[in-house]
Amino acid sequence: MSEEEEASPLLSAAMKGKFKYHEREDSGESTPLLSNSTATPRYDGDGDGEEEEHHVDSEDSSPAHPTDASPASSLTKKSRRWASFIAMFILAALIVVIIVLAFVVPQAIQEYAQQAAVIEPTNLSLESITTNGVRARVQANFHLDGSRVSSNHVRRVGRAVTWVAAQLESEQTKVDVRIPKYDNVLLGSAIVPPLLINLRDGDVTQFDIVADILPGDPEGIRIIANEWFEGRLDELRLNGQADLSLKSGIFPLGTHAISESIVFEANKVPAIPKYNITRFKVDDGPMKGTMLADVALAAFNEYPVELDIPELAFDILVPGCASSDPFILVAEAATSEVHVEPRSDVVVDVKGVIRELPDSLTHVCPDSTSSPLDNILRQYMHGDPATLFVRGSRHPDGDTPKWIADILSSVTVPVPFPGRTLDGLLRNFSLTDVNFALPDPGAPDSNPTVSGTILVTASIPSDMNFGIDVTNVRATADVLYKSKKMGELNIREWQHANSTRVEGEGDEGPMLKIQSRVIDAPLNITDSTVFAKVVSALLFGIEPVRLHVDALVDIKVQTTLGNLTLKEVPAEGKIPVKPLPKGAIGSIEPKVGSLRVLDTTIDSITLQALVNVTNPTFYTAHVPYANIHVLSNGSIIGSATVEDLYIDKGPNSNILVTAKWNPPMGGAHGRKVGRELISQYLSGWNTSITVKPHRNSIPGQPIICEALSKFNMTLAAPKLSLPGDTPEERTHFIRDATFHVFSSTATFTLVSPLHYNTLYLDFVNATALYNHTEPVGQIVYDLPFSAPPGKSQTPKLPVTWSLDSVGYDAVKKAIGGKLKLDAYANVEVRLGNWKESLWYQGKGIGASVQI
Fold it and tell me: Which domain holds residue 489?
């Protein structure tokens, strides 16, 4: 019979390996005991009749079904695999040894038996799990094929002897399987019933054997299992020992002590079977401090095994801080009774109880910021498999056989628990009631801060049906505009939060609305170009500016088990920032309440002013320090500084501004521009100024300053608040005049905008006009006089009348009454050390005319 004709479907499915027998040095040939296709295990070798040795090279195999084995039955299935190997090993060894020991010519018969014996297994199953072990059923066909023997002499002798003997019979035999490497520890025992073997060439013996396999020392199983799980099982040698009693017909052949060894070369030991989780639900338990887990595991049984697995109890453990630390018990689980059918799907229901979390699980590890629980949750939330450990309970249900409990409790199996990415768990991340604060100039390395109300909507997974309350949050977030990063928002400190569970609508599951007030979260601007685009959109756009936020959020939650911390939960959302309303810049309307001169030089004036402005935006701000340039017609004429400024929505009063009037900052042209601006301003013209940040506006914030320096804002010049009964009066520095016709003098009432300083007029050259064009007279006065705060009278200024003009006639006609006059003057003014030549135009000045 050829090798192709002797295929074994059982072994090809169950073992997927090749068994190679190592020849003795003095032997030149070998004969397969189990001959089959490449998928069938093959025994080769020579023996001395007392001890034989086989080597097994185990190869990886692809599963017969896409589903995988469940962890709840992984240890039991492993026991089944060892039981299968042991049963087949015992059967093959016994048949060969029976033949060898039965005859007077052992050397030739031994060689004949080794080469001619062919075993074709047809079925291997575990019928049941007993209180003492496993009952296995082995079905196989056996025959001798003399054509496989290479030596003609051995073939003739073997055929002749076996034809004469016809049959051999063994009594019930107990076989012990030990592990020589580990002090000959007993792995298990098998009770093999009596065997009757047909020996004549070509005669087929059909075996249908039910053997009881008894587990040995649990320590041996634990040693093998742990070395396998840790990848240290390079080779496994098993040794079978038995006392074999034989007879041929009515002739007893005695009892023989036999020893058979087999070596598994496990350089490609299969990995722990995988599994599919088809159901996973967690609910609050009936008792405070407990949760219940309901899990269903699906697997495909690729082996010809049918049995009932009783209820089994397990401990679920997680690793501690260090690899040398003991595992931490987190849950207790029990599987349902399972009926396993050959080559079919198997579903295992698992019920678990999670009790109050131990301190060792939640306590932060030394030299770390994470606890063992943090490490497990981090792996799970990032979609990586978290390694749990499953160990048989030391206190199982009463129906579980003690030998199973002893084995399972001695072995700890690492089980990968598939992670679940939480992308999209947190959504609709938004920020409202926003307040911006610039950094203190005394801390140049600090960042602007943002305060506001964070609103987050979280999806609650449908399989997590337990009470949860968010108590604190913190986050780090990238802030992007049109897919380009603008900066980073860092909420490093825990912020108090509260949450509300909201049932979803339609197909949506329950939601958790989380709200937290964030105070002074640093906003680090990383790209000035992107920030400048945002500022431009806010100043000149009409649509809301949508900033995208990619955040990692840490969440403290309260559950039945206690307080948990979920770290680095991914979240994303939009922060809509409303642009300035249309015409908002014009609505700022700065107004100066009072002025105080702090310092003067020949070219500059440093003063303080209380200014009223209107904030047209939807946001508030705190500015510890900021300095901006003031321009007119493109030339710098001064600067303004604010300190410790709080801007609220709407009107803001009495903002203290320190300004420096310094036209030389704009060069020679700046002097001229400054002179024109102040002359127009004092004359009541509608003047405007431009404010522009510069690269040092905010100390320590070069990126922000670089972005802001690209923008400017033109505003109406602040209106001075002057005493007066009407709006017109409150804009005129010259309130009224009195002309004395006969003495040719005039006096004027002046209103100074300065509340604490005196202004001096060193020279006056003025012309009075009637009806805007007709000259009345001219005043030239070169003696200094003062204009103190508030209202004051000038000295009597000499008037040179324009006697031939219409204006002079109008003055004479108005003697004892009043008329409206215009005035145009060139004056030299002095304020402290500062001097300047200005011009002034006044219209509609009420003038009294006296004799």
Answer: 426-577
